[in-house]
Design brief:
Two copies of one chain form a homodimer. With 455 residues, chain A is an alpha/beta fold. Chain A has 18 helices and 15 strands.
Amino acid sequence: MSDAVKYVLAEDRIPKAWYNIAADLPQPPPPVLHPGTGQPIGPDDLAPLFPMALIGQEVSTEREIEIPGPVRDVYRLWRPTPLYRARGLERALDTPAKIYYKYEGVSPAGSHKPNTSVAQAFYNKEEGSTRLTTETGAGQWGSALAFAGALFGLEVDVYMVRVSFEQKPYRKAIMETYGARCVASPSEETAAGRAILAKDPTSTGSLGIAISEAVEVAAQNDDTKYSLGSVLNHVLLHQTVVGLEAIEQMEMAGEYPDILVGCAGGGSNFSGLVFPFLGRKLRDGQDVRIIAAEPAACPTLTRGRYAYDFGDTGHLTPLVKMYTLGSQFVPSGIHAGGLRYHGMSPMVSHLKELGLIEARAYRQGECFAAGIRFAHAEGIVPAPEPTHAIKAVIDEALACKEEGVARTILFNLCGHGHFDMQAYTDYLAGTLVDEELAEDTLAGGFAGLPPVAAQ
Amino acid sequence: MSDAVKYVLAEDRIPKAWYNIAADLPQPPPPVLHPGTGQPIGPDDLAPLFPMALIGQEVSTEREIEIPGPVRDVYRLWRPTPLYRARGLERALDTPAKIYYKYEGVSPAGSHKPNTSVAQAFYNKEEGSTRLTTETGAGQWGSALAFAGALFGLEVDVYMVRVSFEQKPYRKAIMETYGARCVASPSEETAAGRAILAKDPTSTGSLGIAISEAVEVAAQNDDTKYSLGSVLNHVLLHQTVVGLEAIEQMEMAGEYPDILVGCAGGGSNFSGLVFPFLGRKLRDGQDVRIIAAEPAACPTLTRGRYAYDFGDTGHLTPLVKMYTLGSQFVPSGIHAGGLRYHGMSPMVSHLKELGLIEARAYRQGECFAAGIRFAHAEGIVPAPEPTHAIKAVIDEALACKEEGVARTILFNLCGHGHFDMQAYTDYLAGTLVDEELAEDTLAGGFAGLPPVAAQ
């Protein structure tokens, strides 16, 4: 029986400003470099891809950035999102730990992604863009941008990683229902896509490839901008509504987390929950352990290298310093498509380098087992991505049991699994591929790192 | 741009009692008859199928029936659900009408169905059942009962109409993820299923057939009860939490609806929204027009006959007086699987007979068009069933425009469409079958009506 406790904020508690962690860092992250010159890039270099408002947010060091009224108007459709205490899971684990989770699956797209897609659509509309291009892995991001495009009257072209395009046809359908165009990547539509297909006509694609395609189209068309669903500072910034609300909700519960857990692919879900709490730690010393959970098949933070690298496979982006497996690394077709990026947000990478966060990698089989355990105890079927967080939470809760300590754990359940039932079908049928990532695959990825002097 | 206004109730406003419309009827509905004797049945006749608490609710005439604490504890996972004013849709239609909708898609199963599955699982657990059998059409109900079964520790066997089983494999997957067993119906597991398959090995199934299978298994096993997702009084009763919350939320908005719209298959979604408002009308004379929207391919209320009929195809149920197309009627495989029942709830049928509600039938193509219009304007992709309600709402809103009258319209968006994207894919690809129901098909169905003296 579920007796989850729910903490709900009134609508006027939707945050009025995003929280910018750049204001509180002990040292700034390394600069973004121009791949040709090796010199730090300026706003003008990014102007073909992004509206100026977002470029401003990308480099801002102001602590609070006001959320425009029309963005909050759309947030109101599903925000504030609920925060729960998972008493059913606590009982199932027989743990003294107190487990809380924020739930972003109530958004119309079913995940946390609209927190930034709505903001990006707004600023693009304001500055006259008529079309957005983007990439998507599992399809959560593409759905979210299609949703925002429909509401703000923007065309949306989504390059979807081919393996997910084939695994998740219904993700394509929802993008199209919102009026977006969805293309399997690599595609014949771009030079970047054609180059990949020339080398490997059966390429299953990757986020890095899909980014190249979307960036290429945006760079070549004046009315078209590029929209990214993770990695960049402004994207992480928009997601901080999650953590800002969670801080208030934990106060309602009379608690403060000892441990924060988020799954991490490009870093946006993780940052959204974590940054506001981490800001408190940096400003006021309020301690909290922070754990990023990633897939063993794409272990950026745990086995990647902290180096300057391209954000895409086709090398159209600037160079950013991040934990990376190399821009040519193509992860196996695991179901958590949202976690299949070769790199990690530079900001999250910087925090890891500063020792402010930990990271763990899990295999997808143990993650689905954790997800099913959660569904039975709490009644919500999680998307494959947050099952990684749930696995880490269960491990921590069992450690509490062993030690006889009642720690408070908070994680973000960043999406429901209603679009991902094929993955559960495969898991339940025992047909889930669950291979370990080989050392020579890793070495091959690292061999593709660009020779930047600063490495 | 969406600027929907959301009306949220505090958690303590989850209703403490269900509303029983039997208390306020000008005359009671005709009795349920034993098919052998033609005499009214008593509680003992139903005891093999249902726990006594639910049998008591089925025949109760008390106005309020208390919601048990553990049921409200589970409701808290997603209730109270939001009510919105659809200002984006109003603008898109350029109508003076004010359009409100209650949204039940935030439940963990994605529809209104858990409102009753949780209650049914609770009472069964209380009275010692260890297993529940049920039927499901689109899969919404099966998912909801699987969800409730997981939370209360009950086995759940779901007989799923074969056409939906094949159209919606991910519905099966979510039931299995919750630990339920899902069987395509007609199946070889039951005498009822085998009889159908002997006549037609390629039968696509129907709710009537699936009910026969589920009832048969429950009747033959002491520890097993049967659970129905619609039609029966106690099911409709449990759904009234929807309308009870909506009344409070409309008060928050300073409005009272002139028109209520719900889609109607078996009648549970429709009744959940409508009954509490209709009770006010019956008690206090507070007027409201009430419209049931049904599919033209299964037009029970608009083209059916008000007659005693079996609830199932295999004739294992008692006889109920209802609008029916005949228990042998098998509707075409339209995507709104939840609306493919040959009959209509006896209580809803009675209200239609009393002239308290209207009904309209729509073809699925125009309903999907309405659903997409709603998704673009409001950002939520509806399940196929409520697109019928949306079509009726749009028609009413356009009538307001033509007449220059600002009526207030309220409907229930009873589920999201995340499991139904194949239907949208078919619609967008122009491959949706959209045939009119032929007169001779209707006549064939009526020919199968049982010869009950009272007809």
